[in-house]
Design brief:
Order of helices and strands: HEEHHHHEEEEEHHHEHEEHEEHHEEH
Bound molecules: adenosine-5'-triphosphate, magnesium ion
Structural class: alpha+beta
Number of domains: 3
Strand content: 15-25%
CATH superfamily of the largest domain: Histidine kinase-like ATPase, C-terminal domain
């Protein structure tokens, strides 16, 4: 009865001796073997009947004989020790059987040492486990895709906000620049006329004073008294320089408005050759009108370097960086734009001697909405917009800083396109 029980067990039983000759196979094995071997397996080599994984099997069996200790192999390490088929639990589809195997040492009644291989069909558990794994990696993939999408959306949203901000600032600037230009025109014309008038008035007063002072005593006294009481000499001296200063002030206002118009209101005409030296100078003029503390400097090698770029994006990137640099200077310091052309690249450095950025913050400065400025003072978008703009130029932007001493932003953009463009011209 026991031998019948062993034959019918739902696990595979295979007994081998120390020479790897098969001594016994139960029905689990026999049902899955060719009729050729089924009839005459006894005494034959394991390697002849199951050549597929024989090296592995022999190594394991040998260890059991030597150590007299069971050995276990789990389906995840070695899924198919014997080349049997099994059917999937739900679909019923035939597939390679997943197996757990245990080898235990036995001793026959005549004292011969044997090893018994116990094979368990774990296809159901394994396919369930694999399906779960597939499912969880699909979920993980989906989660990663969602995260990437959220990041993209974040970037798009901040670009939109910035574009909106720039567009409305631009529109506002356009209106103001237009309105300012008219009064500048007539104030400056009036000042010119006023200068002429004052010149004539002074000449008139001088002539009258001369005449009166050389006249009778009473008239001369009156003239001297009146001239003194109205501080005539002081007025005479001050009038011309006052008018000149005002004219110069007006011409500065005119320059700023002109720069503003060129800078903020320039219609996006797509990619084109841009004099980056001139752009930097214009930018400095605009920013220095607002942030007066720092000393500004622009250096460009070669002078009037032209690069092929999207003027809107490039100017926006430079404005945002230079503005931060200017804002980082409290009492005294400098902001420098250093432009150098190489064979293939142009390197633009924006150097400041301002407050600097801590190592921790340096990692975050390009993140949208990262700001250390008080609420309402900064949106934390300037650098993320600059980053995206430089990326669109196939360039790189990086920052290094020495807290308390200053910061350097470095932009590298290819010059290549510029060369092609100028060759074509
Ligand atoms: N040159 C710099 N010196 C010191 N800190 C800087 C400098 N440039 C950037 N930072 C730091 O990086 C942060 C992010 O700059 P970013 O231009 O993106 O935003 P913001 O200036 O705070 O606000 P926004 O530009 O939107 O008005 C700033 O808040 C500031 O802490
Ligand atoms: Mg900023």
């Amino acid at each position: 009865m026991f031998s019948q029980l062993v034959e019918k067990l739902p696990v595979g039983i295979c007994v081998v001796n120390q020479d790897y000759e098969i001594q016994f196979l139960n029905d689990f094995f026999l049902d899955r073997m060719s009729s050729h071997w089924r009839a005459k397996y006894k005494g034959n080599q394991l390697a002849d009947i199951f050549p597929e994984q024989v090296k592995f099997l022999k190594r394991r069996i040998k260890s059991v004989f030597v150590l007299q200790h069971p050995s276990f192999s789990y389906w995840e390490q070695r899924p198919h020790v014997f080349p049997f088929k099994s059917s999937r639990p739900i679909t019923g589809e035939e597939m390679q059987m997943f197996q757990n195997m245990e080898i235990v040492p036995l001793t026959a009644s005549d004292g011969e040492r044997l090893a018994c291989l116990i094979l368990q069909d774990v296809t159901a558990q394994a396919s369930y486990f694999i399906a779960q794994q597939d499912f969880s990696s699909a979920l993980k993939r989906e989660h990663e895709e969602q995260l990437a999408l959220i990041k993209k959306l974040d970037t798009a949203q901040s670009q939109l906000i910035q574009a909106e901000k720039m567009a409305s600032t631009g529109q506002l600037a356009a209106g103001i620049a237009h309105e300012i230009n008219n009064p500048i025109g007539f104030v400056s014309a009036n000042l010119d006329t006023l200068k002429q008038y004052s010149f004539h008035l002074i000449q008139l007063c001088d002539a009258l004073a001369d005449k009166l002072q050389t006249g009778s005593g009473e008239l001369a006294d009156f003239a001297n008294e009146t001239l003194n009481s109205f501080h005539y000499e002081l007025l005479k001296e001050d009038m011309a320089p006052l008018v000149d200063e005002s004219t110069e002030g007006l011409s500065r206002v005119r320059d700023i408005v002109e720069n503003l118009k060129q800078f903020a209101l320039e219609k996006s005409g797509g990619w084109q050759l841009v004099n980056i030296h001139e752009t930097a100078e214009q930018l400095i003029q605009l920013i220095s009108a607002q942030y007066k503390t720092p000393v500004y400097k622009v250096q460009c090698e070669p002078e009037n370097l032209q690069i092929f770029c999207d003027p809107g994006g490039m100017k926006q990137a430079l404005t945002n960086i230079v503005m931060n640099a200017a804002q980082s200077i409290d009492t005294k310091g400098f902001v420098k734009i250093d432009i150098k052309a190489g064979a293939q690249w142009v390197k633009i450095k924006i150097i400041d001697s301002g407050s600097g950025i801590s190592q921790d913050n340096l990692k975050k400065v390009f993140d949208p909405f990262f700001t250390t400025k008080p609420e309402g003072m900064g949106q934390g978008l300037g650098l993320s917009v600059a980053y995206t703009a430089i990326e669109r130029h196939k360039g790189k932007i990086s920052a290094s800083s020495n807290p308390g001493r200053g910061t350097v932003f470095e932009i590298i953009v290819p010059l290549h396109a510029a060369e092609q463009q100028s060759a074509a011209c």
